Amino acid sequence: MINKLKKKFVLINMILISIILIFTFGAVYISTSNRLVRESNDTLQKTIEQENEILKKQINIGEQNVDSLPPQPQIISFAVQLDINNNITNVYYNNIDKSDIVTLNTLVNSALANANLKGIIQNENFRFLKYPNEKGVKIAFTDRNLEINTLNSLLKTFILVGIGSLIAFFIVSLYLANWAVKPIKKSWEQQRQFVADASHELKTPLTVILANADIVLSHKEDTIYNQVKWINYIKAEGERMTTLVNDLLFLAKSDANKNDIVLSKVNFSDIIWNCVLPFESVAFEEEKLIDSEITSDLYINGDNNRLKQLVCILIDNAIKYSKERGTIKVTLTKVQDKAVLSINNEGEPISKEKIPYIFERFYRIDESRARKKDGYGLGLAIGKTIADSHNGKIAVKSSKAEGTTFSVAFTLAKNT
């Protein structure tokens, strides 16, 4: 799928570039052509208006003495005066070559055969302009070689530049395609890994449930009291599955931006106290201590339930991975316009190589330890999702000397 997407990206990009080049080159070509036509018409008009004569005597068609003409530069434009019988009486010129004057009769006849006052004749090599006057008709001619050569040269340049540009854009498009699909490729791989991990996590409790159900069914004659151990195992695994499914549903809704989060002004200090107090008994049972230092009445805009879920995830995580008889420090302080929550434990530090991955779904620093701690590797992923949905920033620092500290910062509500 990724390769198809890359090919489609390159194809669309090349089509767009081709269209842009065609329109750009076409506009330049048409503009240049129109400019050359205007210059030719201006030259014809000026030639019509000039009065320089090559010959002052009447020149009859078929009686031109070519050798009597002095050598002249290459033809740019010239004009002829015809009488009412279409006989040439005068020749007016800008530049004329005697070797080309032999074409004069042919040009005049071609111009007269054309019903229009102006146009192109002689295999499109000459442009003419007729001007009726009291003597008859005056016809101006201009050589189109410069015009034709300019357009042909421009066309060749466009073809070469176009081919070169398309090759260059193709190479750039390949690079951009690889760069553009990197996030998609990563997301696709994460999605596949997510499905695989979710299936694996659901498989374990399902296996336990089915195994315990088989045990119960194998002792059909026993009372519920005698089977209560197996039933409790089924219930416990069912509850674990419910928790896992709810977490997966929350993350799926977050990905689709469908989580119902209602932001309102809430007392973040009270939310943290309401999370700390229940966990004190949990910590006490594990012979650990929660040390709290919470600044009062810090208000932020957020969803009360989601913020409580975030704080509980971080405290629960700190208790689970704190060392024996360790201390968990929960601190809430005001830093400029931010309410900063920090939760520190004295457990084993997280290596720098693993810190960038701890907020990924189903990621476990220690697979065996996570299983013993009854974790799925979704808690921190959910915590980060909640923080992001509140425009907060969550971070972690870990060292052997200071332990592991998770911190999350939210912008204080106004008038705090």
UniProtKB/TrEMBL annotation:
Major place of residence: membrane
This protein's GO CC annotations: plasma membrane
Keyword Transmembrane helix applies: yes
Domain Histidine kinase intervals: 197-414
GO biological process per UniProt: cellular response to phosphate starvation
EC number(s) given by UniProt: 2.7.13.3
Endpoints of the signal sequence: none
Enzyme superclass (EC): transferase
Gene3D superfamilies: 1.10.287.130, Histidine kinase-like ATPase, C-terminal domain
Membrane-crossing segments per the record: 9-30, 158-177
Keywords: Kinase, Membrane, Phosphoprotein, Transferase, Transmembrane, Transmembrane helix, Two-component regulatory system
Subcellular location: Membrane
Keyword hit for RNA-binding: no
Reaction catalysed by this enzyme: ATP + protein L-histidine = ADP + protein N-phospho-L-histidine
SUPFAM superfamilies: ATPase domain of HSP90 chaperone/DNA topoisomerase II/histidine kinase (SSF55874), Homodimeric domain of signal transducing histidine kinase (SSF47384)
CDD domains: HATPase, HisKA
GO molecular function, one term: phosphoprotein phosphatase activity
Pfam families attached to this UniProt entry: HATPase_c (PF02518), HisKA (PF00512)
Protein name listed in UniProt: histidine kinase
Gene this protein is translated from: dltS
